[in-house]
Amino acid sequence: MAQAFHLRLITERAGGGDPIIRERDVAGPEAGIGRAPDNDVILADLAVDLKHARMRFAGDGRVVLETVSGAPFTVDGRSTQRAEIDLARGPVAGFGSYRLAFETAEDGATVTVTREDDDHHPAPSVFSLQARVFNRRNMAWVLGSTIALICLLVPLFLSGVLAPRIHPDQQWSSGPLSKAHAFLETDCKACHVKNFQAVRDDACQSCHGAGDAAPKSLARAREAGSPFEPLLASDHAPRDKLEAATPLPASLGGKVSTLVQRAVGHPTDRCASCHIEHTKAGPVPGSTPEAPMDHKPRLVVVQDCASCHSQLKMRLKTTELVDTPNWEKHATFKAMVVTSAGPKPTFQRIALNTAPQERNGLTFPHDLHLQPLGGVARQAIVLGKNKGYGAALECASCHRPDAGGTGFQPIEMERDCGSCHSLAYARGSDGRLLELPHGELQKVVDTLAGRRLTGGAGSNRQRPGTIRPEAFSATGASAYRATFSRGGACYDCHTVAWEGDTVRMAPVSLTQRYLPRGGFDHSVPEHGGPGQAKAGGFECADCHKAQTSARSGDVLIPDLKSCATCHGQTTAQIAAADDADCTTCHSFHAPGQATPKPGHPPLETLRWTQQVARLGD
Fold it and tell me: pTM of the prediction?
C-alpha cells in the first residue's frame, strides 16, 4: 500500500469560536515544507525559509525530517537540521511559530499543523509603535513624507538649478551594471530577490550554476533575456566547509565588522563579495560618469589561498587536505594511475615519490624509440622520407598538442605508429597488402578467419581478451599465430600471453590526465616543449625522463621537486618576476584547473548563436 501524508491545518478564528480545520492528502514518499506557495506544507512565517525542509518516509512508522536551505528547525524542543522520528511517540516539530504534530496513520502519517500566536505577539509596551503619538500609522506618514521630500521634491527643485551636475534618477541606483548583466538593468528582482537583503548565492547560481544544475542555469538565462551564454561556475568547496575554513580578518575592527555582517544576514563569502556590480570601469576613486562599463563584474580578492590553507586543519578538523602555507609545505603530487586495464579499468591516485607502475596493457619502451642512433631511429629516417620528415624520433613525433596547446591529443595507432608498425598480415589476390583493423579485437579475429566484418554482435563472438583458433582455416590459423607471436603485428605493442592454442591480450587503458587536482598548461613558453629551449623554456626531456624509461608502465610525470626548480621561490621573488602563486595551477571555482589567463573576450564573442547579432559595444 502506498504511503501518504494526511495534513490537518488548524487555524484559530480572530474573534474566537471553533477553529477552522482544513484537511488534504499528499501522496508519498516525500513532501516539502516552507514559505513558498509550491510547498506541500505552506507556513506563512518570515522565520521560515522559502524552501525550508522536506519530510519523507523511512520505513514503517518512521519519517525523516531534513533541512533544504540549511536553516535548522526543532524536534521536541531540540534544534537540529536532520532527524529521524518515530511516529508512535507523537513527536512535534517546530518551524518558526508553527508546530507540526506527527501521528501514525493506517497508510502513512497524520501531520497536524497549528500556529502558536500567543508566543509571538506579546503585549505592547510603552516603547512599542502602538503608542498614541508614535504609533504605526503616524510613523508611516512621517517616514513616507520624509522620503518623498528628500528623494523626490528636493531633487526636482534642484534639477532646475543644478541640472548639469545633478541627475535625479541616478540616486535610486548605486551605479550601472556591467555589460554582461546590462540586460537585467530594469529587472532588479532577478538578483535582489528580497527587500533589504544582500544578493544571495542562489540568485547568482540560478544562471551560473555548473554541474548537474547547468541545464537549468542556461534555461534560466534564456528566460531572463540574456543575449549570450553565461559562464558557469562551481563552488570552491561545500558552503558550510568554506565558511568554517575562512579566517576572520587580522584586525580587531575587521573581525567585529565581519561578525556583525554575518549576524545580520550579510555574509562576506558570497559570490557578490568578490564579484562587484554597479561599478565603473577603471579604478573606482578616479571613475567618472563618462567612464565605460566593464565587460563583467569587478573582481575583488577578499581572501588569498594561503590565508585559508595555511592553518586549514585548525579551523576544519575533518579535512584531509594538508596545510599549505607556502610551496615548501606543498603536498606530494599524486598521479592518477591505471591499476588494472579492461572494459572497466580502475584508476588510483598514487604518490609520485613511490615510483608507481601502470598496468595499461601496452608494451612500449620509450628509451628504445628515442635513441638517436638506434635501429628505430634508422627506420624512422628511412621510412619517414615518404612521410615528409625522415629524422630520428622525438617526443613531438607522436605527442601532438591539442587545439588550445594546453594538453595533447590522444595517441592514434594509424596516425602516430603506423609508419613503422604495419598492420599488414597477408597479400591479397590483386597483390595489395591486407591490413588488420585496429582497436576492436573481435574484428581482428573475424578478419583473420576470413569472415566478413559486419560490425554487429555475431554468434562467433568470444569473451573480450581471448581468441581461440577453432573456426580458422589452415591459412587463417597460420596468420592468426603469426599475428600474435613475436614479430607479429600485435605482439610488439600489446601484452600477449599464450595458453596452449589460445591467446590472451590485455585490454588497453590509458590515463588522459595524470594530475586531476591541478591544471598544467603546456602552452606557457616557460613550461617548454619542442623548440622552447631557445626561447628560455624547457625541452620535454628536462621534465619527462623518457630516454631512460624501458617500461610502458613508468609514470613519466615530473614530481614536486622538479616543479620547485622554478615555483619554489619566496612570495617576494614570485611577485618580482610577475609570476603567479597558487593560482598558476589551481583556480578558485575549479581547483583542478589553472586560473583563466587575464583579459576578457569582447562581449560579441560570447554566445547565444541565434542571438549574437543583437550584441554591440
Answer: 0.58
